[in-house]
Write a structure and sequence with these properties.
The chain is α/β, with parallel strands linked by helices and 397 residues long. It has 18 helices and twelve strands. A seven-stranded mixed sheet has the order 6-5-4-1-2-3-12, sandwiched between helices. Strands 7-8-9 form a three-stranded antiparallel sheet, covered by helices on one side. α2 links the parallel β2 and β3. It starts with 11 loop residues before the first strand and ends with a strand. This is CoA transferase.
Length: 397
């Protein structure tokens, strides 16, 4: 363990979230220096048991979004567990939850309950659907949001939608939640007031997807079809010996590309200089590029496109991503010695702050590893902690 050095050092967060959306947001805030206390049930976050692991409850997926946190195992349905959290709330700056609001209210930890205990608290709710809409009480998972937001239709088509094979909804919303909490903390610095922050998944992903995918429906009445034709045409390009993504983007890029490959006549034939005509002809342009791509190897294309300053890259295999040239040069993936899990590999914080660099200051916690420490810091006596453990309100390693 090292001291946190990020811009949120000194901020304390109670993280009552599980799986990915909320924990990812809390991990980002922890990377940025916050003291994140992960409040788990006595069984632990179910994400602990998903994916590959050396020891039960410490999967690689769990550890990726639960570093820089301390674990407090607490039974909130137990009267003493409830009373324990009530004593912790006044010590916190932020409470994060992805428990549905009605369930939090039944537990006695809705926004009004928590505000009464700590008027300066930022209460951040990670929800599936905005709480003013008819779907407010529905459960939400990533695929539900991909389907309902239009993202799956954008990836596939209206006739045959497809899911992104990654939990992108959770991760997009986790980043949005981290930003929202940071903004609310900044507002509190000016006003002295806490507030309720809600980040709903459906609205967040629908807005994210709509930027380019509304297409002609960005106007009322619509002036063209929905979708972004260029994205539908952009696909991996097969070379003589593999694959590459090449992305001539500007008119100058396309002119340089067709000139370099000995096909200058396509510059005028496909009208690549004019951005409007280029967009209209993009299917023909990409078809020509695909045909030409088969004439050279991936390495030959990389050498040529780099010289032309045309955006491009070869494809990275998932199992080789830690050796990708750029990521390796900037030491993006780091090896961490975990006391129980051995050597683990994680991505370091990507965001940089020149005056307050974020760091990996805590390894991912075992369930209840910090229960005693957290409670003692909050003013609980040894005898009180022992009683809480004996009654089953708290678990500790």
């Amino acid at each position: 363990m090292t001291e946190p050095t990020g811009p949120l050092a000194g901020i304390r967060i109670l993280d009552l979230t599980s799986v990915l959306f909320g924990p990812y947001a809390a991990a980002i805030l922890g990377d940025w220096g916050a003291d994140v206390i992960k409040v788990e049930s006595l069984a632990g976050d179910m994400w602990r048991y998903t994916g590959a692991f050396r020891n039960r409850g410490m999967s690689g997926q769990f550890m990726a979004v639960n570093r820089n946190k301390r674990s407090l195992a607490l039974d909130l349905k137990h009267p003493d567990g409830k009373a324990t959290l009530q004593r912790l709330i006044p010590t916190a700056d932020v409470l994060l939850t992805n428990v549905r609001p009605a369930a939090m209210a039944r537990l006695g930890f809705g926004y009004d309950d928590c505000r009464a205990l700590n008027p300066k608290l930022i209460y951040a709710a990670a929800t599936g659907f905005g709480q003013e809409g008819p779907w407010a009480k529905r459960p939400a998972f990533d695929e539900i949001i991909q389907a309902a937001s239009g993202l799956a239709s954008s990836i596939g088509s209206d006739e045959e939608p497809q899911f992104v094979p990654s939990l992108v909804g959770d991760k997009i919303c986790g980043q949005a939640l981290a930003g929202a909490v940071s903004a609310a903390l900044f507002a509190r610095e000016r006003s002295g007031k806490g507030q309720l922050v809600e980040v709903p998944m459906l609205e967040t992903v629908a807005g994210f997807n709509s930027i380019e995918m509304l297409g002609g429906y960005a106007f009322d009445p619509p002036i063209g079809p929905s979708g972004y034709k260029r994205m539908k045409e952009r696909k991996p390009v097969r070379t003589k010996d593999g694959w590459i993504t090449m992305l001539p983007y500007s008119g100058d890029n396309w002119c340089a590309f067709f000139e370099a490959v000995g096909r200058p006549e396509l510059t005028d034939e496909l009208q690549v200089r004019d951005p409007v005509a280029r967009a209209e002809n993009i299917d023909r342009i990409y078809a020509a590029m695909n045909e030409i791509a088969a004439s050279r190897t991936t390495a030959q294309w990389q050498e040529l496109l780099l010289r032309l300053d045309v955006p491009h890259t070869a494809f990275a295999r998932i199992d080789e991503i830690t050796e990708q040239e750029h990521l390796k040069a900037v030491d993006f993936f780091v090896d961490i010695d975990h006391p129980t899990e051995g050597k683990i590999r994680q991505a370091r914080p990507a965001t940089k702050f020149s005056e307050a660099p974020p760091n990996l200051h805590r390894v991912p916690p075992r369930l209840g590893e910090h229960s005693r420490d957290v409670l003692m810091e909050a003013g609980f006596s040894d005898a009180e902690v022992e009683t809480l453990v004996a009654t089953g309100a708290v678990a500790q390693m």
